[in-house]
Design goal:
The complex is a heterodimer of chains A (141) and B (795).
Chain A lengths: L3 H24 L7 H19 L1 H8 L3 H18 L12 E6 L2 E6 H31 L1
Helix pairs in contact in A: 1-2, 2-3, 2-5, 3-5, 4-5
Chain B lengths: L1 H24 L4 H5 L1 H18 L4 E8 L4 E7 L1 H24 L6 H20 L3 H19 L6 H32 L10 H4 L3 H15 L8 H4 L5 H9 L3 H15 L3 H24 L3 H22 L2 H32 L15 H15 L5 H11 L6 H29 L15 H19 L1 H17 L16 H18 L1 H15 L3 H23 L4 H22 L2 H5 L2 H4 L2 H4 L7 H19 L3 H21 L3 H25 L9 H27 L5 H14 L4 H9 L1 H26 L11 H7 L1
Helix pairs in contact in B: 1-5, 3-4, 3-20, 4-5, 4-11, 4-15, 4-19, 4-20, 5-6, 6-7, 7-9, 9-12, 11-15, 12-14, 13-14, 13-18, 13-22, 14-15, 14-18, 15-16, 15-17, 15-19, 15-20, 16-18, 16-19, 17-19, 17-21, 18-21, 24-31, 28-29, 29-30, 32-33, 33-34
Chain lengths: 141, 795
C-alpha cells in the first residue's frame, strides 16, 4: 500500500477530509452531519495519514496524543452542560447566543460546544486505536 | 423511654467499638469496666418489669427508611423481656468472666468487642418487632458469632467451625428473609405484633411455615442440621457459655415462640416441631454420653435442650408453653454456670477429660459449689428452677391419648439422659479419689467464679419464691406466646398422690441408671457410630467440596480462554433469546395473530421497487456472496464492506441521510480497522476450519439471522407509536433551534445520554490501548537499545 502515488496524494486527501469533517460537524444542527460523523471522518483521515507516513510520523504531526484529545472532548462536553447551572436552569439546559456580524447572524450555543466535544472524543479515540494498530508493531520490533 | 429501648440494642455496639481502647487503658480491669454496659442494660430492663407485668407491652417505633414506610420498631412484652433480661444478665457475668479467662491475651480487647457486639445483635433480635429488623439482627448474630467461634484463627479447626456455623445459619437467614417478605406480601405488615390469622388462612401458609421453620432449625441446630453446634466448641469457653445458654442457638427457639401467635397451632406446625424436637432431644442426650470431653458433653446436652424447647413450643398447650418459658430460664442459668465451671476447671487443672479428672472438690471448693448448684438444676431436683420446668412439661401430657403418651416417653427418656449427664459432670471431676492433673489445680479467680455462683443462687432464690416467679416470669412470658392471660399455679408443695411426682422420681431413677452405666453406654454408642461410617459433618464436607468442584467445572466450561468458544456462547445465547420467545412461547402469535393474516399466500406479491433499488439489493447480494465465497480473510473483510455500503445506500434511498452518512463512515473505518487487526494478529491468510466448525458457525449465523428477521417483521407489523417523533418534529425548531431532528435529539433532548456514551467510547479506547500495549510488551523486558526519540514520540 505504501506506493509513491499514495504517499504523495495522501496529505492532500487528509487536508480535504479534515476541513470537510469540521464543516460536517458544524452544520449538523440543521443538516445531516454532527459531531459523531465529523469525528469519524477526521479519524479516517488520520488513519489514511498513518498508512501513508507511518504511525510514528503521524503522531509527531498530530503533536498531541489522540487519547488526550478524546479526554479533552469529554471535558468540554461536560463543561458545556455545566454552563447552564449559572443561569439557574438544570444541568445541560441549552443556552443560545446570536452574534450579529455585519449582514449575517452567527448562532452560538452550548449544544454546539457539546457537539464539538463529541467530535473530539470520537476523533481522538478512533485515531488512537487506528494508530496503535498501524504503528506499535513496527515500533516495538 | 422510647428511644432508650432502641438504645438497649445499640449501646453494646458502641461499647464494642470502644472495647479495644478500654483494654489498652484499663488493662487488667477491662472486663470489669466493660461489664458495666450489659449490667446497666440489665438494670434498665428490670425497671420495665412492673409495666410489662401489669399488662402492658411497650412498643417503640423509630423511622428507619421513611421513604419505604419502614420503621425500626421494637416490642417489649413478657417474652422479649424474659429473653432480653437473660441475655443482658448472663452477658454481664460472661464479660466479667472473659476478662479473667483470657487475662493477658494480646487480643482480649478485640475479643470483648466481638462479645459485646454479639450481645447487642442478640438483644436487638429479641426486642425487634419489625421482621426486617429481626432479620438484620439475626444476620448480625451469625456474623458476630462467626468472629467469636473463629477467634483463635490460627487453628484450622476453629476456622472450620466458624465457617460451618456461618454457612448453616446463613442458609436459615435467607429463609427468614424470604419468609418475612412473603408475610409482608400477604398482609402488608412488617410488624409481627400487627399480624392476626391472615397468614394461617392464606394459600401460601405452607411456604411461610417452611421458611420460618428452616430459619429456626438452622439457628437452633435441630437434627439434621445439628452438627455445627458441637463444632462451634472451638470457640473460647466464655463464648460457648454465652452461645449455648442465652443467645444464638436460642434465637431459633425465640423465633418459634414469637411466631406462635400467628403461625403456630396448626397440625403441620405441631407435627414438624414435635418430631424434630423429639429427635434432637434424644440425639443430643445420647451424643453427650458418647463424649468424655466436658465441653463436648455440655454442647451435646445443649442440642438436647434445644430439641426439648422446640418440642414444647410444638405442643403449644398452656402447660407446655409455661414449661418452655421456665425451661428457657432454667437452662440458661445452669448451662451458663456449667460452661463457666468447665472453663475454670480447664483453666486451672489443664484438662477437660472426665476420665482423667477426679477429686477436684477439695482444691476448688467454690467451683464445686457452682457446679453442684447448676447440676442439681439440670437434674431437676426440687428447690431449683429446673424442677418447675420439668413438672410443667409432664403436666400437660397426662390426657392418656396415645400421642401424649408417646411424647411423654420421649420427654422422660430425654430428661433421664440429661439428668445422667448432669450427674457425670458433677461427680466425675469433683468427687472420688484425687487424680493427678496436667496443672496443679487451685481455686479460680473471683471474676470466673462470680458467674456460676450468682446464677446458681439466683436459680434457687427464684424457685423458692414461687408466687413472684409465677407473676413476673411465667404469666407474662407464656401469655405473650399464647396471646391470652395465663394463671400461674406454681407451688413448692410436693403431692405424692399426683402422677407427676412419680414421673419425676422415674426421671431421676433413669438418670442414675444412665450415670451408673455411662462407660458401657459410651462403648456401645461409639461402636454404633463407627458402624454407621458417616455423620452429618462428613456430609457437610462432601457438599462443600462438591460445590467447589462444581463451580470449578462451571468456570472451566464458560471461561476457558478461547475466543472462538466465547463467540459461539454469545451467539447461541442471542439465538435462544430471539427464537425461544417467538416460536416456542407462542410469541409470534401474540404479536401477529395468524387469523389476521388470513390467506397469506394470496397476499404475496412482487415488491414494487424502482430499478435503482433493485440495483442496491443486487449489490448487497453480491457482497453477501463474496463474503461466503472469499478464500482469503482480507477479501472477506472487504466484501463485508460492500454489504455495509449497500445497507447505507438503502438508508439513503429511504430518507435517512444522517444514518446513511454514519453508516458509510463506520463501514469504512471498520474495514480499515479489521484489516489492521488482522495484520497484527498474524492469522493465517486463509480461513481453515474443519467442516464441523463451518457447519456449526453457519447454522448459528443462519439461526440468528432468521431470528432477527422474524423479530423485525413482527415489530414492523405492529402500529408505530409516533407520539415521541411527533413531539420532536413539532418542537425541534422552536425549542432547540435546529432543523436536523436526529442531531437535536443527540445533543439536546438526550444530551445527557450522549455525554454518558462518549465517556464510554473514551473508556473503551483506553481499554483497547491497554490491551494492545500489554500484547506488544514481552513478558520479560529485554534490555534493548531503543532509539529514544521515537519512544518519546509514541508516548
Amino acid at each position: 500500500m505504501n506506493t509513491i502515488i499514495f504517499r504523495t496524494i495522501a496529505p492532500l486527501i487528509v487536508a480535504i477530509m479534515l476541513i470537510f469533517s469540521v464543516y460536517v460537524c458544524l452544520r449538523g444542527h440543521n443538516e445531516p452531519g454532527g459531531g459523531f460523523i465529523g469525528g469519524l471522518i477526521a479519524a479516517s483521515s488520520i488513519a489514511i495519514l498513518g498508512m501513508a507516513n507511518g504511525a510514528a510520523e503521524t503522531r509527531r504531526a498530530l503533536r498531541i496524543d489522540p487519547l488526550a484529545i478524546a479526554g479533552f472532548g469529554v471535558f468540554i462536553a461536560g463543561f458545556s452542560g455545566l454552563l447552564s447551572l449559572f443561569t439557574g436552569s438544570p444541568f445541560m439546559t441549552s443556552i443560545w447566543l446570536y452574534l450579529e456580524l455585519g449582514q449575517t447572524t452567527v448562532p452560538l450555543s452550548t449544544p454546539m460546544v457539546f457537539d464539538i466535544g463529541v467530535y473530539f472524543v470520537v476523533f481522538g479515540t478512533i485515531a488512537a486505536v487506528a494508530l496503535a494498530l498501524e504503528g506499535d508493531g513496527e515500533e516495538e520490533r | 423511654m422510647d428511644a432508650s429501648i432502641a438504645l438497649v440494642a445499640i449501646a453494646p455496639f458502641v461499647a464494642a467499638l470502644l472495647a479495644p481502647l478500654v483494654h489498652r487503658v484499663a488493662k487488667p480491669f477491662a472486663g470489669w469496666v466493660l461489664a458495666l454496659v450489659p449490667g446497666g442494660i440489665f438494670l434498665f430492663l428490670l425497671m420495665l418489669i412492673e409495666k410489662v407485668v401489669s399488662g402492658g407491652a411497650i412498643s417503640v417505633r423509630i423511622g428507619w427508611v421513611p421513604a419505604y414506610d419502614l420503621d425500626l420498631s421494637f416490642l417489649v412484652d413478657g417474652l422479649s423481656l424474659t429473653f432480653a433480661l437473660t441475655i443482658s444478665g448472663i452477658g454481664t457475668l460472661i464479660v466479667l468472666y472473659s476478662g479473667a479467662y483470657l487475662k493477658g491475651h494480646p487480643h482480649l480487647g478485640r475479643f470483648l468487642g466481638f462479645l459485646l457486639a454479639f450481645m447487642g445483635a442478640m438483644l436487638g433480635l429479641v426486642l425487634a418487632d419489625s421482621m426486617l429488623a429481626l432479620f438484620m439482627f439475626w444476620e448480625l448474630t451469625s456474623v458476630t458469632s462467626f468472629l467469636l467461634i473463629g477467634f483463635d484463627h490460627t487453628r484450622q479447626a476453629a476456622r472450620r467451625g466458624a465457617i460451618q456455623a456461618l454457612v448453616i445459619t446463613n442458609i436459615g437467614g435467607m429463609a427468614l428473609l424470604i419468609g418475612a417478605i412473603l408475610v409482608h406480601w400477604l398482609t402488608g405488615h412488617w410488624e409481627m405484633s400487627a399480624l392476626g390469622d391472615e397468614v394461617r388462612n392464606s394459600g401460601l401458609y405452607g411456604l411461610v411455615l417452611t421458611a420460618f421453620i428452616a430459619a429456626a432449625f438452622t439457628k437452633s441446630a435441630q437434627v439434621p442440621l445439628h452438627f455445627w453446634l458441637p463444632n462451634a466448641m472451638e470457640a473460647p469457653t466464655p463464648v460457648s457459655a454465652f452461645l449455648h445458654s442465652a443467645t444464638m442457638v436460642q434465637g431459633g427457639v425465640y423465633l418459634l415462640a414469637r411466631t406462635t401467635p400467628w403461625l403456630g397451632g396448626t397440625e403441620a406446625w405441631t407435627l414438624i416441631l414435635v418430631c424434630f424436637g423429639g429427635a434432637t432431644l434424644l440425639w443430643g442426650g445420647l451424643g453427650a454420653l458418647r463424649q468424655t470431653d466436658l465441653k463436648q458433653m455440655l454442647a451435646q446436652t445443649t442440642l438436647a435442650s434445644l430439641g426439648l424447647s422446640v418440642l414444647l413450643i410444638g405442643l403449644g398447650t398452656e402447660a407446655a408453653i409455661a414449661a418452655m418459658v421456665l425451661y428457657f430460664v432454667a437452662h440458661a442459668f445452669y448451662k451458663a454456670g456449667l460452661f463457666m465451671v468447665v472453663g475454670a476447671v480447664d483453666h486451672e487443672a489443664g484438662t477437660r477429660d472426665i476420665t482423667i479428672l477426679g477429686g477436684l472438690a477439695d482444691r476448688m471448693p467454690l467451683t464445686f459449689i457452682g457446679a453442684a448448684l447448676a447440676s442439681l438444676a439440670m437434674i431437676g431436683l426440687p428447690l431449683t428452677l429446673g424442677y418447675f420446668a420439668k413438672e410443667e412439661m409432664y403436666l400437660g401430657l397426662l390426657s392418656g391419648q396415645w400421642r401424649d403418651i408417646a411424647v411423654l416417653v420421649v420427654l422422660l427418656a430425654g430428661n433421664g439422659l440429661l439428668a445422667g449427664v448432669a450427674m457425670l459432670v458433677l461427680v466425675r471431676p469433683f468427687l472420688g479419689p484425687v487424680l493427678p492433673t496436667p496443672k496443679l489445680a487451685h481455686e479460680a479467680p473471683i471474676a470466673m467464679l462470680a458467674g456460676p455462683l450468682v446464677l446458681g443462687a439466683a436459680s434457687i432464690v427464684a424457685a423458692v419464691s414461687t408466687d413472684w416467679l409465677g407473676r413476673t416470669l411465667l404469666e407474662p412470658g407464656a401469655g405473650a406466646i399464647l396471646g391470652k392471660a395465663v394463671t400461674s399455679h406454681l407451688t413448692l408443695a410436693i403431692n405424692p398422690a399426683s402422677p407427676i411426682f412419680w414421673l419425676s422420681i422415674a426421671t431421676w431413677a433413669l438418670g442414675y441408671l444412665v450415670y451408673r452405666q455411662a462407660a458401657t453406654l459410651r462403648t456401645l454408642l461409639r461402636r454404633f457410630e463407627a458402624g454407621l461410617g458417616w455423620t452429618a459433618d462428613t456430609v457437610f464436607d462432601a457438599v462443600m467440596f462438591g460445590l467447589i468442584r462444581f463451580s470449578g467445572a462451571l468456570t472451566r466450561l464458560l471461561h476457558h480462554g478461547r475466543l472462538e468458544i466465547y463467540l459461539v456462547t454469545v451467539f447461541a445465547g442471542l439465538a435462544l433469546a430471539l427464537i425461544v420467545p417467538l416460536v416456542a412461547l407462542n410469541g409470534y402469535d401474540v404479536l401477529l395473530p395468524t387469523a389476521e393474516l388470513g390467506n397469506w399466500a394470496a397476499k404475496l406479491s412482487w415488491p414494487q421497487l424502482q430499478p435503482y433499488e433493485w440495483g442496491v439489493i443486487a449489490l448487497a447480494l453480491v457482497g453477501l456472496g463474496a463474503v461466503l465465497m472469499a478464500n482469503n480473510r482480507l477479501v472477506a473483510i472487504l466484501a463485508l464492506g460492500i454489504q455495509g455500503t449497500s445497507v447505507a445506500l438503502i438508508f439513503l434511498l429511504f430518507g435517512a441521510p444522517d444514518l446513511a452518512f454514519t453508516q458509510f463512515m463506520v463501514e469504512v473505518l471498520s474495514v480499515v480497522i479489521l484489516a489492521l487487526v488482522m495484520t497484527r494478529l498474524r492469522l493465517d491468510e486463509r480461513d481453515q476450519r474443519p467442516f464441523e466448525d463451518l457447519a456449526r458457525d453457519g447454522t448459528l449465523a443462519l439461526v440468528c439471522g432468521v431470528g432477527v428477521s422474524l423479530l423485525l417483521m413482527v415489530v414492523l407489523s405492529g402500529v408505530l407509536d409516533t407520539r415521541l417523533s411527533d413531539l420532536f418534529t413539532a418542537t425541534s425548531v422552536p425549542i432547540a433551534h435546529g432543523h436536523n431532528i436526529v442531531n437535536v435529539i443527540l445533543v439536546d433532548y438526550r444530551g445527557f445520554d450522549t455525554l454518558g456514551e462518549i465517556s464510554v467510547v473514551m473508556a473503551a479506547g483506553i481499554a483497547i490501548m491497554a490491551l494492545l500495549r500489554s500484547r506488544a510488551k514481552p513478558a520479560v523486558p529485554k534490555p534493548k537499545p531503543a532509539p529514544r526519540r521515537r519512544r518519546k514520540a509514541a508516548a
